[in-house]
Amino acid sequence: MADCCTPRKKLCWCVLLFFLVAGITGGAIGIYKWHYSGLNRWHGAGSTADFQKIIQERCDTYTQTIRPGSRSRNCQAIRQAFMSAFISKDPCKATNEDYNSLINLAPPTVPCGQQVFWSKTKELAHEYAKRRRLMTLEDTLLGYLADGLRWCGEPGSSDLNVWSCPDWRKDCRTNYLSVFWEVLSERFAESACNTVRVVLNGSLENAFDSMSIFGRVEAPNLRPQVELEAWLGNDTGKTPSDSCSGSSIRKLKSILDGRNVKFRCMDNLSRDQFLQRS
């Protein structure tokens, strides 16, 4: 019996135990790195932390405080439909249809003549809309819920990917964040009527960008007989770089002419002048 506890045998058992522990630890680390590298493979930032909680809280605030007239909206159903649109799915294979159920629960429609579109002028457009009691896309229920958030999932997983999400330019255009805003923007533009407005940045060389959401989605989906007023506001301290007679605005007018949409344009306005005159 004494032989089993000799120093030599104890050393052998210690060596064996060391390699066993090292193997298990190495395997666990390898599995973690493999899992992490899969979730971290995209070039964009990951899903917003506490995404579901934020959606629920924003919906409650919007329907109960900001626009009490929308109290009939079911915030729990909206949150569930939002999650169902993208969770457990390939984050680069989003389709317009994925968001149908969500948008049908809260269509981005506003009273006639109250739409304000914008491109590279978010802060200015929101200030203008607030002063004039008009509405940007982010003032609709779904726009308010999603503003500033990011989200994506992974095939076969019920969790959000908080490590990374696809970037529109570097990974894929058909990611769930981009497609959401495109679908919502299309519905917002299609519902426009009477006179609506777009706020563009006159400090840029091309105030109208045909590849922006306004250029690709909203302007081409305005209905005939709508009148669009374009306001070219300049950044504080900057001189105008584009005008109503510039090539980019002529391109916008060409798109609108093809839709039988009336067009008016005002330019060379500072931020304060725009907010006072518009």
Automatic annotation (TrEMBL):
GO biological process, one term: positive regulation of B cell proliferation
Compartment annotation: Membrane
Keyword Amino-acid biosynthesis: no
Single GO MF descriptor: NAD+ nucleosidase activity, cyclic ADP-ribose generating
Superkingdom to which the source organism belongs: Eukaryota
Catalyses which reaction(s): NAD(+) + H2O = ADP-D-ribose + nicotinamide + H(+)
Signal peptide location: 1-26
Enzyme Commission number: 2.4.99.20, 3.2.2.6
Similarity comment text for this entry: Belongs to the ADP-ribosyl cyclase family.
One Pfam family here: Rib_hydrolayse
Keyword list, A-Z: Disulfide bond, Glycoprotein, Hydrolase, Membrane, NAD, NADP, Signal, Signal-anchor, Transferase, Transmembrane, Transmembrane helix
Classification lineage: Eukaryota, Metazoa, Chordata, Craniata, Vertebrata
Record GO cellular component, one term: plasma membrane
Quaternary organization: Homodimer.
Protein name: ADP-ribosyl cyclase/cyclic ADP-ribose hydrolase 1
Main location: membrane
Record's keyword annotation contains S-adenosyl-L-methionine: no
Matching InterPro entries: ADP-ribosyl_cyclase (IPR003193)
